[in-house]
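Typical record is below.
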Amino acid sequence: MKLNSLVLIIFYFCVVTFISISLLLIMAPGSQNSRSKDKAEKADKSDKADKPIASAIKDLKASATAVLQHLEHFETAENLQRQVKELNQQLKEANEKVEKAQEEQKQNDITKEELTKSFEQRILKWKEREHKLEAQLKEERTKAELSSQKKDRKWEEHLEKYERKLRKLEEDLECERDRNTDLNSRLRQTKKTLDGLRGDFHIVPLEQDFFSKSFKNLEDKLFDLTERFFKGPFQPFDQGQHHFPRTSQPMLFTYAEYHPVPCARIAQSLIADRLARDVFKPMYIASPKRLKSMGDALQRSENEPRQKAILRSLLFKTFREEEEEQQRDIIKSVTSELLHELEAMLSSEGNSVFEEELITYLETAADIWSQLKRGSDWVLASSIWHHNFTAWNKTRGPSSSTAVGQQRLLPGPSWVVMFPQMYVDGNDSLFYPGSLWSIDPAPVEEKRNAQSPRARRVSASRSSKSPTVAEASSDPGATAYRSLALRDKVSETGRKVSSDSEGQRRCKSTC
């Protein structure tokens, strides 16, 4: 239909064009004359042909108008076609966009469904996990409640047990309070009794500082005394022979360890030994049986050391005159015996002066010891150097070249007691350490090494004649052990028959 209308419009347009061209050809001029003639002819003819031409022109105008209208419609149709085409193109693009949007929507829906499905699965898993956790929580809560109940029962049992213990302890505390009250009353009564006894006994407390200084002063005086009167050369000396000089039983054998010792140290050792055995005794007066002194009887009794000291203070207060008289006799006897032992080392000019100073020294020592007897502690003296060896004060002195080769020198130091050791019986506390002296073996060994070969051969021949000496020379350790064992046997024999020294009794209890 659109094509037919378009063909019709074109036809009308061609007709109108043909008519117009024909009119123009007819009206084209030939010359001015012809024109003027024609003009007149035309004027005549025009009047005749005005009406058909006018109608034809009118029709032509109408046709042109129609053609123009058709052209306008045609342009409008083209525009519409173009618009339709554009609209179709837009519609197509819109459809594509819609399809694309639908595809995207579809993908989104699929993704959404997948997400929803995944989320639902997660929710299901979470719900399952939540159920499991709730079950575990419930189980743990049940366990915790059971454990708490069990612990509560256990703590209740402990609490009941502790409450029973507390009640028992309160009862015991009440009993202890009653007992302490009773003990306090008894203690007050005992203190009153003790104060009364102290007033009766007049027991003097032991003054450690005073007696330590006094014994130190005695030791220094003894050293000065022997240094002034004994200046002779070194002499062989064995202190073991002087521990038991007055035994009434025969000795089975003796084994002496001789060491070169200065005369002054020998004299000091002998005096210190007699101080420990004869002067520093618990008591001097004799016992009722007359077989031993009262001090020995008290020492061998089964009483406690404090009881012995209290009993001694009472006896000393009661028999003070007899004690002092016996003390003077013992000092005279000890002085006489010491002068006899030291006579060979003492010069004849200083014999009388030494005797007077020795008596004065022994009396001073006895007076200090008498003050110690009034105390409430049982103090004993000992000159046994190998007992409590670490507590002694030890010094070393030089040897003499004149002593080398005179006697067999035993290996190891030989200690000589320079002043007795005091200790408190009952608590094993040291009261005064005492002093030991020993030869310095280094110069002696140097002198022995410097001897001539002939002197060494003579010494070796002498030692080979005596098995004991040869064994001692070949094995120094065995010699020291054997000499100590033999001397202990001798000491044991002397202790069985002698009651002269308190130090011997202590050795018997410790050996």
